[in-house]
Amino acid sequence: MIKNRKKNHSAAVMLVCLIAFSVGKMTAQQTARKEVVISKDLKWSERMALSIMKRDPKLWQIDNNEKPKWDYKLGLVAMSFEQLYKKTNNPVYENYVKEYAETVISSSGEIMNYKLEDYNIDYINAGKILFDLYKTTKDNRYLIAMQSLRKQLATHPRTNSGGFWHKKIYPYQMWLDGLYMGTPFYARYTVEFDKGKDLDDVAKQFEQIHLHTIDKKTGLLFHAWDESKQMPWANKETGTSPNFWSRSIGWYMMALVDVLDYMPKEHPKRKELIQYLNEISKAVAKYQDPSGLWYQVTDSGAKEGNYLEASGSEMFVYAFAKGVKKGYLPASYKKLAEKGFDAIVTKLITVDPDGELHITQVCASAGLGGNPYRDGSYEYYIREKIKIDNSHGLGPFILAALELEK
């Protein structure tokens, strides 16, 4: 069995390597894809990674992108591949990320389609992959790119109480999503390059979002907060958006467990962040469906139109599993994580005859304001597009599988 597993693994890896270098002609891609067989003896994390590479020989092609770009969603998937490489030592996963980085960051360190003056917190997320790339390659382009992203945070507009705006086009607004986009990069950068001098400011981002978005009745966090209370979606008394969106809470929880990697045990804010994690975990656990999954609108259960959503469920599983492994959460959350992951693979994953995996029921995107206007209503969240193999569902699946060693 072990011998066959190694043989299957080697064959899959060799073919994927070939695919990665044969993107020039569509016919070559199609032929190579048909040849790859992904062994069911591999762990779920590798089966998903190889499925992604089979469909998209270049990382930037994920989500049917027609040209390369610097993007938070692609950064999420790339980060999961970096973590997979650390677990497996298989260079095919590292090279998939490295090739993407070399494509979107010039030799002089300029980041493709990046504009600091946009002050978009989403732009920071893909910067997480640069730390390890810089360490392993010593290529200065990655250091320069990291410094550019850190420079954005230095001048990024803030609420009056010190929280980063989600984007310049969304003034005085903090979204839960933004915590994952900005704080893990910020925390790692300040620890590795600035002796941790900004960790208090990192913690402040969580303090602000917790203070202003928590719902005392459910313990859940609303998707966003408008300090100015000017947006039509904002509650005129509290400034909060009207609903709970599972993926946004998932972003927040993943941000917490990832930032804690860089928060020293003796740091006075560490206990506070662990407390936040315990509070939101307790609230989220109450809304886990008997199936093991979570709904798109977290607290609305089987209300008409609501559905069991993949990405939020994966993020909760990841945060629970990592929280237990690191000692932040009680051991009981490991069972909830296991139940959630088992439900994901039995109810939301489909498998082709050649072993290729697909993740279903992924909310394509959700936000607030903008044009066309998004009002944050229940109807809005359930009507957003649902996709298969959307990047939001790919990266967190691998991360969750790795935490549970699946």
TrEMBL record:
<dbReference type="GO" id="GO:0016787">
    <property type="term" value="F:hydrolase activity"/>
</dbReference>
<keyword id="KW-0732">Signal</keyword>
<dbReference type="InterPro" id="IPR008928">
    <property type="entry name" value="6-hairpin_glycosidase_sf"/>
</dbReference>
<dbReference type="InterPro" id="IPR052043">
    <property type="entry name" value="PolySaccharide_Degr_Enz"/>
</dbReference>
<feature type="signal peptide">
    <location>
        <begin position="1"/>
        <end position="28"/>
    </location>
</feature>
<dbReference type="Pfam" id="PF07470">
    <property type="entry name" value="Glyco_hydro_88"/>
</dbReference>
<keyword id="KW-0378">Hydrolase</keyword>
<dbReference type="InterPro" id="IPR010905">
    <property type="entry name" value="Glyco_hydro_88"/>
</dbReference>
<dbReference type="InterPro" id="IPR012341">
    <property type="entry name" value="6hp_glycosidase-like_sf"/>
</dbReference>
<protein>
    <submittedName>
        <fullName>Glycoside hydrolase family 88 protein</fullName>
    </submittedName>
</protein>
